[in-house]
Specification:
- The chain has 251 residues and is α/β, with parallel strands linked by helices.
- It has two domains: 176 residues, Rossmann fold, CATH 3.40.50.300; 64 residues, no CATH class.
- It is built from nine helices and ten strands.
- The strands form two sheets. A six-stranded mixed β-sheet has the order 6-7-8-3-9-10, sandwiched between helices. It has a four-stranded antiparallel β-sheet with strand order 2-1-4-5.
- Strand 1 and strand 2 form a beta hairpin.
- Helix 3 packs across helix 4.
- The longest helix is centred in the last third of the chain and has 16 residues.
């Protein structure tokens, strides 16, 4: 693995009964980029993210996060990755400010870093007006922005965002896109799983497509610009072309 790789997956497999959710997946991602992860329902995107974050164990294969083998050194690997899952789970008796400060301390940030990064995220996510409200009183979109902040508060090498932009208002989306770009510019890698193909097209330095647990396509920014040259187009036509007849359905 090269010194700049943030994630290396080799021969990764995960089954649920007879269903192969992830099927011999190989993938290497560099540092300092936003990676769009696309594919139909049941393609294995969420399972792959859970495996990389250490929330599930693979049946076979290896995962290295920033050079650390997640099987051999699980605690060290988990410190290098943060996940915002589709099913958000937050401490609902805390406020957004308390939540971010709590996460910052867990991630080992100093008090001054916690304060600066908490204020920055409350601003970026437009959560300042509700910073002292209990999480249980927030809307679904506000909770999703807070969960994203929990993942991105500390400068970990790898952040996984699973459908994190669903239901967000345009103003927040625009502001948070800038946060993702800044995070990548500082050397971190973000993997963004989304069905919002226009968002993926705008943000991504690399786009990868999964189907039936396998990697079926990978495009760099330059390749995307050549294949989807219009600024008013998105990935839809390219996505449908590669989806072909092998479409899968399910959770």
């Amino acid at each position: 693995m090269t010194a700049t790789a943030r994630l290396e997956i080799a021969g990764l497999q995960r089954r649920y009964g007879s269903h192969r959710a992830v099927d011999h997946l190989d993938l290497t991602l560099p540092g300092g980029c936003v990676v769009g992860l696309i594919g139909p329902n049941g393609a294995g995107k969420t399972t792959t993210m859970r495996l990389v974050a250490g929330h599930q164990a693979p049946d076979a294969g290896t995962i290295r996060v920033d050079g650390v083998d997640i099987a051999g050194r699980p605690d060290d690997a988990r410190l290098r990755v943060a996940l915002t899952p589709q099913d958000i789970s937050l401490l609902e008796h805390l406020t957004p400010e308390e939540t971010l400060r709590f996460v910052g301390r867990l991630r080992g940030l100093s008090d001054s870093e916690v304060s600066v990064r908490t204020e920055r995220w409350l601003d970026a996510a437009h959560l300042q007006p509700v910073r002292q409200r209990l999480v249980r009183e927030l809307s679904g979109g506000m909770k999703r922005k807070l969960a994203m902040g929990c993942a991105m508060l500390a400068p970990v090498p790898l952040v996984l965002l699973d459908e994190a932009f669903v239901g967000l208002d345009p103003e927040s989306t625009h502001s948070l896109e800038a946060e993702l770009r800044d995070f990548a510019a500082a050397g971190g890698t973000i993997v963004l799983s989304s069905h919002l193909l226009d968002l993926v097209h705008r943000l991504s330095d690399i786009v990868i497509m999964m189907r039936a647990g396998r990697l079926v396509a990978r495009w760099t920014r330059a390749e995307l610009d050549a294949l989807v040259p219009s600024p008013h187009a998105d990935l839809t036509a390219l996505y449908l072309q590669h989806l072909g007849e092998g479409r899968t359905t399910g959770a």
